[in-house]
Amino acid sequence: MGKRAWTIIICGALILAIGMGMRQNHGLFIEPMRMELGWQLGVFALALAIQNLMWGVAQPFAGALADKYGSRPVLLVGVFVYVLGLVGMAFPQGPMMLHMSAGVLVGIGVAAMGLPVVLGAVARMVSEEKRSTALGIASMGGSFGQFLFAPVSQGLINEYGWSIALATLAAIAALGVFLALQVNSKPGEEEHHPSQINQTMGQALHEAFGTNSYILLNLGFFVCGFHIAFIVTHLPMFLSTCNIAPEVGATALAVIGLSNMAGTYIAGVLGGKYSKKYLLSIIYLSRAAAILIYTLMPITVFSTLAFAVAMGALWLSTVPLTSGLVGVMFGTRYMGTLFAITLFTHQIGAFFGAWLGGYFYDLTGSFDGAWYVSIALGVFSAVVHLPIKEMAVKRETKTA
């Protein structure tokens, strides 16, 4: 990989650290905000559920714009909207404002700074042989951000309160402008792919939705979103119900991020050597096992940190494999758009993961129902990946 490719990989990873990594610690703010504002847990759960849903809705548009105009302008707009959302979240004047800022604006901002835009840029810069590894390295950015901003967020909350903490994070996020300027990957730089000869975006979309393997990949990625959103949103609150200090929740989220830096990189490397669909099945089945074991054990600091290590290794390790499968099937010309649609399904799962956690708690006073659903979905996703055909889609050519 050349110098330009490495620049885009590193800057893209740092953008993901600011966007995805920072927002994965928003669960740390729920309890102090709830205690000070006096709102029900469901208000915050709905805000973060809206965030995940808007993230998903906006991603196909962000991916399509990046495929057409390049990644840089989309990333710049994303940074602006993301910072605006964090500022609004820092000073909410009511539940509706919280839903608009933490939900709508942050969701749209993260989408424009997200995986389809960044990984689409990275995929265009590297050969197919090195693509899985490059995607794994770039994807590590989200995990690095989670690892970095979990203790930073908790420290700022403890020292200055949740409002100033969020305003400080908004200032840090504004630095993403300088990183976005370095990601100058443009459409047309991708390698030739047999399914892309004279293909329009409309044809690419028709082809994708007519491919059963792509549909199955989307169904499986729904589960990834559910798991991640439920845990990052509700693990700190869950631990507080078990009389465990809030700092342990921040530490657990940081450990997940640290562990997943290794897990994502290893998944990317393995994806270049072995079947991506079987690796994904193993990951989802392992998630179900980890959640089952954790919920059956007494909830302690040790068991929580052990769970964080296990889940961290499996956290975003799905991303280079899932995006890699999209590249294998359809090439990289419209990868930003097609992977964004897959991530939309991921974010529908994230909506339900964030919302159902709060719903179950307000209804029963417990998170048990959401844990059980997480286990069942893990098994479902492990099974649904097995029939996927891991090969380039063949297009029919018409002759006069």
TrEMBL record:
Q: Does the keyword Hydrolase apply?
A: no
| Keyword entries, A-Z | Membrane, Transmembrane, Transmembrane helix
List residues of the Major facilitator superfamily (MFS) profile domain.
5-393
Gene Ontology molecular functions: transmembrane transporter activity
Give TM regions: 39-62, 74-91, 97-122, 134-154, 160-181, 215-239, 251-271, 278-299, 305-330, 337-357, 369-388
Would I find Thylakoid among this entry's keywords? no
Name this polypeptide is given: Major facilitator transporter
